[in-house]
Design brief:
mainly alpha
């Protein structure tokens, strides 16, 4: 056990020495450059993802607008067809009333 404590103690001593080690200016600059390049890569990926999502969102908005316009047109077409049917029904009634009117006039003239 005493050997384990000695080796463990040395390990901690070495670890503490490494933690308290003073880094040189060049090492700090290289470390910071590495961190900056990693952050630049991450920023690039995020910008790419934002662009992709923006394009996807604009596509969805465009499709939604097209569907809205199609629905408006469809409703207008349905309304037109409904009004057209109503007009045909009214025209038939008008024809029937004209025939009825002619018959009544003929009856009045024969009396």
């Amino acid at each position: 056990m005493s050997k384990d404590l000695k080796t463990t103690g040395k390990f901690y001593d070495n670890a503490l020495l490494k933690l308290h080690r003073k880094y040189g200016k060049d090492e700090l600059v290289l470390s910071l450059k590495k961190q900056i390049s990693e952050k630049d890569i991450e920023i690039g990926k995020l910008k790419s993802e934002i662009d992709f999502l923006s394009a996807e969102l604009s596509d969805k908005k465009e499709k939604k607008e097209i569907m809205r316009q199609a629905n408006v047109k469809l409703k207008a077409d349905e309304l037109f067809l409904l009004k057209e049917k109503e007009c045909k029904i009214h025209l038939k009634k008008i024809d029937e009333l004209r025939k009825s009117n002619k018959e009544l006039i003929m009856k009045l003239n024969h009396k």
